[in-house]
Design goal:
alpha/beta; Rossmann fold; 10 strands; 31% helix; disordered C terminus; AB_hydrolase_3; AB hydrolase superfamily protein
Length: 362
Amino acid sequence: MNQWNNPSPFPSPPLAQPPTVYQPLHPSLRGLLDPEYVAFHDTCLQYLIPEEQLKWDTSTRSRLPTLASPSAELKVGQKRDIQLEHCAVRVFVPESSQHVPRYPVLLWFHSGGWVSGGLDSENDFLTYVCQTSQCIVITVDYRLAPEHPYPAAAEDALEALTWLRKEAAKYYPVDLERVAIGGHSTGGNLAAVLVLEAACLFPSFKPVLMLLIVPVIDNTATPGNGWYNLNAPWLTHSRLLWYRSMYLPEGPSHEDDYSTREKWQISPNLAPSKVLSKCPRTWIAVAEYDLLATETLAFSSQLRASGVEASVKMYNGSTHGILALNGILSKGRELMLDAVQALNEVFWPVRMDPLMGWALSA
C-alpha cells in the first residue's frame, strides 16, 4: 500500500474554536457609528463577558475588565495625594515657566458606575487639562458602592469641595474665584449634584463652570422611559441598571420614598427651576449613540429654560466610551481639546488657544 494512504499515527489537531462573542454590535448601528469605535468593538469589546453578569463580591472590583485605552499622561509640576476624613483627593499642579500667583481649579469626579475607579482614573485627561489649561486639578477618590451606597459618594463630593474652599489655599495657590466642577459619566452625576448642593449651602460660592462629559442625569430613567438608544454599546441599559442597583439599593421603584431634596441629589433633572437657575455656565459633551444622550440633552434644555448658559457639543457617531478611548479614537482627542477650550474661556478669557503657549495675564 502506498505510504500516503496509511493513516497517520498521530491524532489530527483539533480545529481552533472561534472566540465567544458576548457583546455583538447591533447591526442597525454598524454603519452609523464612528469607524474607529467599530474596529475597537469588533477587536476587543465584543469578546468580553458583560460586567453585569458577574456576581459581586469583594474581589469583583479588581476583576472588572479594563477597557479604557487612554493617551499618555503628561508631566505636571506636582502630584500629591491627600487623605480627608472620608475620602482622598489627588492634586495636580501645572508645570509652568511663568510666575502665576494663583491658578484656577478644576474639581473632578471620575467615572466607574459609582462602583469602581479611584485616584488613578482618567489621569491622562486630567494631566492634559492641568498642563494645557494651566490649572490645578483636584480629583476625588469618593467611597464606592456597594460597600458605600448613596449618599456616601455625594457626601464625599461635598467634603472635597469644603476642603477646597477652606483648606486648599494653605498648601496650593488656588484661585477660589475661578473654580470649575466637572465629572465623567457617573462622576458627572456627582458633579451636577454637588453644584446644586453648593448653590443651596454656600450661596456666596460661585463656580465659573460646570463641565459634564456624558453624564448620568436621570436615575429614574428606564428602557422606553427616558432611555431610547437601547442598542447602545459600551454602556448598555442592563449595565447601568446593575450599577444603579448597587448605588441605590432601594431601587428606582422606591424613588417616591426619598424627600424632594434627596430626589435631586440622585437625579439632578428633578431639581426645581429655582435651584437649577443657580447653576453656573455649563458645558456638556454628548455622544450621539450613548444610552444617556436623551436625558443629557433634556437636562441642557432644563438649564436653559432656567436661565443658565448651557452649551452642548454633540459627538456624532460616538458612544459612551468616547473619553475612555481617547488614546485610539480621534473623536476622544477632539473631546479633550474641546473640554480644555471650554475651561480656558472661563479660566483665561484673554487667551483662547490651549496649544499656543500664551502669555499669562497678570
